[in-house]
Amino acid sequence: MKYSKVWWKEAVIYQIYPRSFMDSNADGIGDLKGITSKIDYLKDLGVDIIWLSPHFKSPNVDNGYDISDYENILDEFGTMADFDEMLAALHQNGLKLIIDLVVNHTSDQHEWFKQASSSKENPYRDFYHWKEEIPNDWVSFFSGSAWAHDKSTNEYYLHLFDKKQPDLNWENQKLRHAIYAMMLFWLKKGINGFRMDVISLIAKDLDFPNFPLNRFGDLSYYANGPKVHEYLQEMNQEVLSKYDCMTVGEAFGVQAEQAVSYVSNDGKELNMIYHFDHAVPREESCFIAPKKEFSLVELKFIFNKWDKAIGTNGWNTVYFGNHDNPRMLSRFGDTGKYFQVSAKMLATVLLSLPGTPFMYQGDEIGMSNANFTEIAEYDDVQVFNAFEVLVNQQGNSSEVFLKASNQIARDHARTPMQWNKNKNAGFTTADKTWLKLNDNYTHVNVADQVEQPNSILNYYKKMIQLRKKHEVFIYGDYIDLRPNCNKIWLYKRCFEGENLLVMNNFTPTTQSFQFDFKINNRILLLTNLEEVEFLENQEFTLTPYESRIYLFQ
Ligand code: GLC
Ligand code: CA
């Protein structure tokens, strides 16, 4: 046995973006009671763990990723009683909950920052990074310098994100212990773990060096700082090791070769991380010149690299979408004629590659990018800040900016969940939703798909159940059979005499191929077509976006 068997390895994780999941009180904004009202849906889907994007008190500059009070609830999301009720209901239904831990930065409205910026002598001053002069040329992920001027004390503070998201100084022991106490507060309530926001960025190089020539904006200057492992080990000792909880770190700027240092089996730091190698790049310039989408060969290469780099020394994750990326269907599938079949094909891949899979709300019904027609339709600080710099200050064309945003903006993943074909997709009874809906909700919605046996939603359910039946999906070795093919993603998974053969056609055309090894006694476990054309012997033909999973000896 190469791996120890643990619940979070066997689980399917489902991410909820609370603002866009379900509105219970007709203000057009999703909330905790809304989530509680949909627990039957989640249970029926078969997922095991819910990752909740931030629900903490926040002025909401970055949709809750700017926290002003870690032990209270964002006003629009409800109350602590609503949280407790949601957590209890999830647990009663056999679901676990992990919450977002956003501790690289706070909101500038957090009491710590208010104190810190009130005077240089304030005991909280050292909770943040202050400099008399801007010390380097670092840029913020949300445009402009990473240093902002504080009027009251006439110094500059570091913010890797918006200037209303000042970075915390982890060097300060009191700060670290305040964070551990806060984590214990939530663990005592019974939450089952944390997704850790940009955790790779918490430890800064306190020399704050400039970027060397031609390496402007290089992430390696922000991430994996000198003491990151020391801090995570301390956090583990003080907090995580005391609970049977799971952790997944958002590993912005972490390279595959560095992964094991975070997620080693010795259990001293984190259980899992997720990388950015196939994410849509965050650089500001992409809002004018978006990078080309990854080809299938590139995607496989990235996946293979991480699978090998972690190997049996730790545990991997799989995701193709989340609240920071456009919709996975728009990126890797087809939103036209092959919409249904390609969404199911992506489900097959997501749920059959090795590593704990992360589903993102709405992907299970094939939600795709929305068509934003003007900048005012967005509600994302990243877009607004980039627009300010690129268009207002630098004079780039707003059409070009809009076009790029329609391809890469995070809001594509944040449009409200499409529950049914009624007004506002059944997300709210208010007249307006906080962010516009994707108008395809009249034909892409949960209610319809619950009824249709061959819907994308029912396919996800089948696929999730299959994972639960066959351990090879979880613990099987992964062997890529055609790493250099840009058309099909074809792989084996092998575990204790059970073998899977997974075939996915990533193209809108038919693909035929042969095997040079014997596939004995094969049983078709799953197909995303209503009818599969069988050929004898070792030859296979896959129609557009077809997927199949065989069990063989
Ligand atoms: C993470 C979050 C993202 C947020 C950023 C700053 O990358 O996923 O949504 O804007 O951190 O907290
Ligand atoms: Ca609401």
Describe the structure.
The protein has helices spanning 7-10, 32-36, 39-45, 80-92, 111-116, 173-189, 228-238, 259-263, 296-310, 328-332, 339-350, 381-393, 398-408, 446-451, 456-469, 472-475, and strands spanning 13-16, 49-52, 56-57, 69-73, 96-101, 130-131, 147-150, 155-158, 193-196, 246-250, 272-274, 317-318, 356-360, 477-480, 488-495, 498-505, 511-514, 523-527, 539-542, 547-552. By secondary structure, it is of the alpha/beta class. The chain folds into three domains: 7-105 and 173-371, Glycosidases (TIM Barrel), CATH 3.20.20.80; 111-158, Oligo-1,6-glucosidase, domain 2, CATH 3.90.400.10; 470-552, Immunoglobulin-like, CATH 2.60.40. The strands form five sheets. Strands 11-10-9-5-2-1-13-12 form an eight-stranded parallel beta sheet. The protein has a five-stranded antiparallel beta sheet with strand order 14-15-16-20-18. Strands 6-8-7 form a three-stranded antiparallel beta sheet, with no helix packed on it. A hairpin with a 2-residue loop joins strand 15 (488-495) and strand 16 (498-505). The longest helix is centred in the N-terminal third of the chain and has 17 residues, at 173-189. It is globular, with a radius of gyration of 23 Å. It binds alpha-D-glucopyranose and calcium ion. The site of calcium ion has 6 residues, from loops.
